[in-house]
């Protein structure tokens, strides 16, 4: 089986988590800003798409070379045997990016790349007319950084955060990949209680249940590579069957989610059902300020409404203050609160054990971590 150089892409601040996921799957990795490289076969490509919880997409690094003129870009792109990857009727849009490079016009970079590939394919498929572009989708990207060109082929299609279970979203939904990252960062062990006091459409609790049950996040969807003529569909079927056999049905999970809005609780229940974890999470209508517990050693993750997102700043800070009042009396619990409000600690009434910078889409947010002192049962 042919080996490819592969690249997982992810949101800023998530690189170490994706690298750890890949290492746990047995791959050697190399990390750069926003991407983690590893090598693998078509089987590994499908496995990574199926199992990675925090990555956005898996791309094949098709070509790398230096180019300072459009001529060089054209000739070196054309030199690659594109017919090995793209069938005669392939639909192949070319995206582009350029920074700190002589070839800085992105539309021109895209057009030249496309032209070079068309020329190569026309020669390979012995056609003088236009290529039909009526078949499967192969999304390419030419990214140039300091005159170094990298052309990649996206194997994923719709971003991996689209797990396929979210029937309805709330007003400010958290991406599934981000929710999974928060659960990973919290080092939650399944024998401890897990709570999301501001559950919204239920994403954080659902991702926790998927992790707790060892359910592959891509089990309910397919990827662009699934439709390619050089990909054996049996590989996908085998890997999905294997993933189903690895689901842990024996673990008893204690996961609860609360929201002040009754409609959101219904949406969260429906989403959990669609994800196959409807019986693993208890969703209840309750305001965050009214929640308390006598359980110990729990993990709490909250993505409360923040000023610029929903509601206004004053109401948000009042909520943080109420949270601080309740949570600071729960010494065995670890609390993780995500917000873009830089005055959070003041309102909460306590300095975080650790603060981690993340990006929720384009919005810079901080994860305030308050580590609990676990007691042995």
From TrEMBL:
SUPFAM superfamilies recorded: S-adenosyl-L-methionine-dependent methyltransferases
Residue intervals of the RlmL ferredoxin-like domain: 5-59
InterPro entries found in the cross-reference section: RlmKL-like_Mtase, RlmL_1st, SAM-dependent_MTases_sf, THUMP_dom
Ribosomal RNA large subunit methyltransferase K/L-like methyltransferase domain ranges (all copies): 163-367
Keywords: Methyltransferase, Transferase
UniProt GO molecular function: RNA binding; rRNA (guanine-N2-)-methyltransferase activity; rRNA (guanine-N7-)-methyltransferase activity
THUMP domain: residues covered: 67-154
Positions in coiled-coil regions: none
Gene3D superfamilies in alphabetical order: 3.30.2130.30, Vaccinia Virus protein VP39 (3.40.50.150)
Protein name listed in UniProt: Class I SAM-dependent RNA methyltransferase
Organism: Weissella hellenica
């Amino acid at each position: 089986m042919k080996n490819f150089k592969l690249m997982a892409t992810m949101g800023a601040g998530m690189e170490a988590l994706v690298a750890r996921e890949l290492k746990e799957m047995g791959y050697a990795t190399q990390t750069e800003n926003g991407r983690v490289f590893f090598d693998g076969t078509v089987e590994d490509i499908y496995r990574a798409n199926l199992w990675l919880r925090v990555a956005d997409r898996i791309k094949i690094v098709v070509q790398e070379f230096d180019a300072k003129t459009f001529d060089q870009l054209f000739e070196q792109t054309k030199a690659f045997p594109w017919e090995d990857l793209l069938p005669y009727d392939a639909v192949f849009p070319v995206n582009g990016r350029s920074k700190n490079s002589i070839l800085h016009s992105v539309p021109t970079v895209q057009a030249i790349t496309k032209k070079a590939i068309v020329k190569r394919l026309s020669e390979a498929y012995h056609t003088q007319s236009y290529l039909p572009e009526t078949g499967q989708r192969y999304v390419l990207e030419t990214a140039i950084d300091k005159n170094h060109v990298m052309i990649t082929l996206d194997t994923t299609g719709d971003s991996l955060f689209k797990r396929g279970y979210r029937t309805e979203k709330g007003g400010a939904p958290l991406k599934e990949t981000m929710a999974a990252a928060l659960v990973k960062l919290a080092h939650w062990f399944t024998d401890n209680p897990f709570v999301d006091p501001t559950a919204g459409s239920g994403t954080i609790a659902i991702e926790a249940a998927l992790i707790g049950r060892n359910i592959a996040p891509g089990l309910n969807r397919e990827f662009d590579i699934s439709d390619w003529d050089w990909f054996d569909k049996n590989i996908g079927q085998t890997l999905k069957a294997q993933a189903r056999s690895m689901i842990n049905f024996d673990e008893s999970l204690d996961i609860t989610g609360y929201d002040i809005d009754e409609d959101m609780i219904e949406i969260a229940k429906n989403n959990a059902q669609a994800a196959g974890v409807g019986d693993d999470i208890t969703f209840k209508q309750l305001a965050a300020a009214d929640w308390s517990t006598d359980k110990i050693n729990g993990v709490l993750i909250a993505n409360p409404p923040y000023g610029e997102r929903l509601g206004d700043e004053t109401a948000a800070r009042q909520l943080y203050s109420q949270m601080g009042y309740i949570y600071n009396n729960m010494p065995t619990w670890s609390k993780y609160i995500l917000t873009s409000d830089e005055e959070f600690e003041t309102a909460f009434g306590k300095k975080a054990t650790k603060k981690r910078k993340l990006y929720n889409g384009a919005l810079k947010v901080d994860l305030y971590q308050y580590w609990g002192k676990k007691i042995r049962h």
